[in-house]
Structures are given as C-alpha cells and as structure tokens.
Amino acid sequence: DAKTTQPPSMDCAEGRAANLPCNHSTISGNEYVYWYRQIHSQGPQYIIHGLKNNETNEMASLIITEDRKSSTLILPHATLRDTAVYYCIVRVDHNQGGKLIFGQGTELSVKP
Amino acid sequence: DSGVTQTPKHLITATGQRVTLRCSPRSGDLSVYWYQQSLDQGLQFLIQYYNGEERAKGNILERFSAQQFPDLHSELNLSSLELGDSALYFCASSPGVDWGEKLFFGSGTQLSVL
C-alpha cells in the first residue's frame, strides 16, 4: 500500500471549516483513499473514502486531486467534538484484501 | 456506539504473566481484527480472523495468540508479558472476509504491565 504524509498537527477555530491535507504521491490506480479519526483513546472511527471522485457524506467531504497524488478532508463546520487524530490511509480495494494500515495522522485541535 | 464490545476496559498485571482480552463483534460480522496502540508505535495491525479461521497476520509477536470461537467472539492471549506490552488493544469487526469497506472498532482494553 502507498504511504501517506500528513502534517503532525493543526488548529482550527470552532465553527470554521477544517481542511486536513494528505499527500500520497505513490498511490496506485487500484488504491482508495480512506479517512478515519480517533478521539482521545477511543477506537478509530470511519469518516469517508474515495477513489478519484470527490465524495461527501454527513460527516465530511473528501477532495482528491485529478492526479490523485493528494487529497483534502474537509470538516465544514468544526466543533470542539471534532478534536481528534485524523488518519489518511491509502489501501487497495477491500475486495482485494486491502489491509487498513494506520500512519501517524494529524492531531486536529478545534479551539473556541 | 460501534456495536463492538471489548472486555475488560482496563487490565493491570505484572511482567511474566498471561492475560486474555475478549472481543464481541457487531451482530452479523464474521471478521475480527486486533490492533495494538502504543505511544511509540502508533496503531499496529496484529491479526485478523474470519469465521473462526486465521485470515491475515500483521506484526504479532510469537508470545501473542488469538482465536475466534463458533459464536464469533474472539480472544487475544498475551503471555510472558513485558513492560513494552503496555498498550491499548483494539478489536474491530466487519461483515465479510475482505477487510470490509469500513471497520468498526471497539473502545479498547488498556493493558498496563508493571
């Protein structure tokens, strides 16, 4: 699976959009971009995933560049409860046995 | 609530001892995954079971073993414990054999080896 690079930490003001970048310049054509988050010592929680098109769900939006070498997770209106470590993971399609391998993630602090 | 139940929540033991961590997957999920999270190593995949059979192995030590029972609950056995085994141990589950589009994680067992 391709490796990802994320900033170790970011701050965001409450109510503003949080834009979390992820670099995955070695991504292959059959690899998806997944985002999970982990709120202090709780189990990781799935957020969103995509292959090449932008995706949106009730939690977040995922913007993937056209060359697929980077992506951005957007939390449109961050709240204090969004303070967590966010993991960007590149994995082969799950139908092909793509394991979920976590990196170091970005620690997002949402401040009042 | 993810639907994945892990017990106990906390475990304190001494070096050289053996412990068993338990996981009940979401109703209907056949795959169970174990992860270890320590401060220096981050979240590390240990092992996956599907419907009672070992399916994939990660960075699991020989002192550690796991199994999945006919009722689909799983146990992670850690023996000859060392100080460095102190960590949060997470269990996750998914419906099928193929790692699943989403994994659902339990709230973890905090193991402290003194």
Proportion of β residues of chain A?
A: over 45%
**Average pLDDT of chain A:** 93
Measure the end-to-end span of chain B: 31 Å
Instruction: Enumerate the spans of chain A where pLDDT stays under 50 for 5 or more consecutive residues.
Output: none
- Main sheet specs of chain B: 7 strands, mixed
Derived from helix and strand composition plus strand pairing, the structural class of chain B reads: mainly beta
Q: Structural class of the secondary structure composition of chain A? A: mainly beta
Helix-residue proportion of chain A: under 10%
* Structure annotation, total helices of chain B: 0
Counting copies of identical and different chains, the oligomeric state is: heterodimer
Biggest sheet of chain A, in brief? 5 strands, mixed
- How many β-strands of chain B, per DSSP? 11
Secondary structure: number of strands of chain A? 9
Strands of the biggest beta sheet of chain A: in what spatial order?
Answer: 1-9-8-3-4
The outline of chain B comes out as: globular
Secondary-structure element pattern of chain A, one letter each: EEEEEEEEE
